[in-house]
Amino acid sequence: MRLITHNMLSCNIKGVTNGFPLKIEAEKVVEKEVDFNPDFLRHMFAKIEWKALVEAARSMGYAELPEDSPDATVIESADETFLRKLHHALLELHLEEGALVCPETGRKFPVNKGIPNMLLHEDEVKQTVCIDLRKGNEPTRIRSPKDRVLMQDVCIDLSLQVP
Amino acid sequence: MSLSNGVSLSITTTILHSTSSTFLPKKSPKTSLKEVSMTLSYLSSFVSLFLTRKWCGSVGILVKGMYELWGEGTCYEELRDSIESFPDSRKLPFLASDSTFRISVETFGKALTFDEQRERINSLTYIPFEGKVNLKNADHNFFIMEMDESEENNGLQPILQRRIFFGREVGFADRKLLPTFQLKSRTYLGPTAMDAEMAFLMANQAKAASGKLVYDPFVGTGSILVSAARFGAMTMGADIDIRVVRDGRGPDCNVWSNFKQYGLPTPVALLRMDNNLPPWRSGLNELFDAIVCDPPYGVRAGGRKSGGRKILRGTVDPYTVPEDKRTDHIPSTGAYSLVECVHDLLHLAARMLVMKGRLVFFFPVLRDENGSEVKFPEHPCFKLVAVSEQILSSRYSRVLLTMVKVEPYSEEVEEAARLMHVEFRENHLKWLEKGNIHSSVFKPSDPSQVHTDSKSFKDPKPKYRGKYV
To answer: Which stretches make up the tRNA (guanine(10)-N(2))-methyltransferase TRMT11 N-terminal domain (chain B) (predicted)?
Structure first.
């Protein structure tokens, strides 16, 4: 898993508001060479959360990135030293084995063979509960196809989302 | 098809660039997308251009070649007159004595013997070729293209009048890509791996090119991304099934090896995630240049999303997995209908595509004999620019939808989109009841052959006997 990916991911467990950035627990870091492509880097630079990237690179053992996000002139200039550092941090550092930890809940998302597993467990998935306004204030869980059809009718009338 | 000498015409690079949202004209059921496209590729190659430089490989995969038209006619005398009236200033630079050339004869709908070809080439003595002949690697390639009248032939349209064209090649598609990338020789395949030509077509539709980031949210074995990578794009993929993405069938037989097999750069990232509950951070948007995918139709490989099927139905409350079992626990997944899947895809694309980015995906449809309008999924951020049907059987086909993002994403847009989705799902459910896609694919088409004997009466909805993850 590269740092460019890490910069996009956050924890999406139900109820979590501050799931970014995920802390990296690195067990095995590998460096793989990638062709240098300055146009791609310039395009990506606009989308990166800088602080998160610097912190993540440090936890992977690379501390060459400047603390503050450089302004546009440095990126557009012909001088490639900064771009090379960015290239190395974003694309060439690989987390092969380890975990990504949610800053709010501490939930660990394992990384195996370079692939992060962002799938949630059964109790972390949002469960929608329908409030059937016609029967009063009792929340109704959908238990059978008939309930579902009933709920669909209500929800479409009220333009609400059907679970 | 009338062409005028030397005048530039727009090129139909692929038939998929049709701007109206209608199906292709009805042909006999046996015709596949491939056949129709091959016809048009031959026809569209007879187009004249004002180009002086060679375009190699950057042309859409269905175009056989692009030629500067020097002359045309219904017989060789007319061809001669036509070529002679073509301005010398346009001809002489390519006939120079220090260049090499080659003349080939192409025929459409018939085959010529070697002698017949040579006879035609020799009839061109009135063109002052000064250079030397080089059959392997000439500077300039010339083509005589001949088409005879023919009836409608195996689904191809009839040709009304014999025509002969003579032109200089200015560009060609790298059709050698197809045998190189064909699935037969690919290391890691799955049941839904996309055929190589189709994957290249999808990459063309998405305008995959160097410097662009292409994303596939249903990556599977990576067949579509391989084609996008071949055109120079950086690729990224995700899938809910971790066995397909991470493990493959071994350390040398997985998604990465598919890229290494062709010497292509491996994807920037591969993730395991659920498109229904994506883990993107909240500020992230407008990241991808194109999203190209083949979502699960629910026929052979159904879609899955988080939450076991009993949980989603509410039969069972969500349970907590005990701590000691958590590390190896594979979360259960539940049914994910096509409609919901496409809605999530549109939502993802609306948020994550750059402006003017392209969304290209397949959508299954039932083929209706009375040609009633089939509604496609819509989203307020997107404009549908191409609909291309691939007929799979007499009752079932899939359409490749190409959409371009024209509106930026916002909260209001999301509301409008959700309402559109509810409406679409309503119609889709009604349509599904009339003719279930699953049963269209698997059941016999002639109902009178099914026994009405109560013992062998089959359940109207065939049970899914595949694997549930």
So the answer is: 60-175
β-pair partners for B167: B69, B143
Establish if A162 belongs to a structural domain.
no
pLDDT in tens, B163-222: 899 999 988 877 778 888 888 888 888 888 888 989 999 999 999 988 899 999 999 889
CB B82 within 8 A of CB B115: no
- Pair A93, A144 in one domain: no
Q: Which of B284, B315, B336, B414 to mutate to test the interface with A (most CBs of A within 10 A)?
A: B284
Distance CA B463, CA B269 (A): 36
- Chain B CA closest to residue A5: B269
In a domain, A61, yes or no: yes
Q: Which residues of B392-430 are buried (b: 16+ CB within 10 A; e: fewer)?
A: beebbbbbbbbbbbeeebeeebeeebeebbbebbeebee
Q: Report residue B153 as tokens.
A: 């032939």
Six token digits for residue B286:
């407008």
Distance, in Å, from the CA atom of B32 to the CA atom of B15, rounded to the nearest integer, reads: 13
Is B382 strand, coil or helix?
strand
Q: Same structural domain for residues A83 and A142? A: no
Asked if A149 reaches chain B (Cβ–Cβ under 8 Å), the answer is no
pTM of the model: 0.72
The per-residue pLDDT for range B72-115, each reduced to its tens digit, is: 999 889 999 998 898 888 888 888 888 899 999 998 878 889 99
| pLDDT for residue B17 is more than 70 | no
Tell me how far apart the alpha carbons of residues B237 and B291 are, in angstroms, rounded to a whole number. Answer: 10
Q: Cβ of A47 and B286 within 8 Å?
A: yes
The count of structural domains within chain A is 2
d(CA B399, CA B362): 6
Q: Does residue A111 sit in the same domain as residue A32?
A: yes
The reply to whether ipTM tops 0.95 is: no
A115-116 and A108-112 strand pairing: antiparallel
A135 and A111 within one domain: no
Which among A35, A49, A113 has the least Cβ separation from residue B246? A113
Q: Which domain holds residue A70?
A: 3-120
- Considering the domain architecture, whether residues A9 and A86 belong to the same structural domain is answered as yes
For A96, half-sphere exposure in the C-beta direction (CA atoms, 13 angstrom radius) is: 6
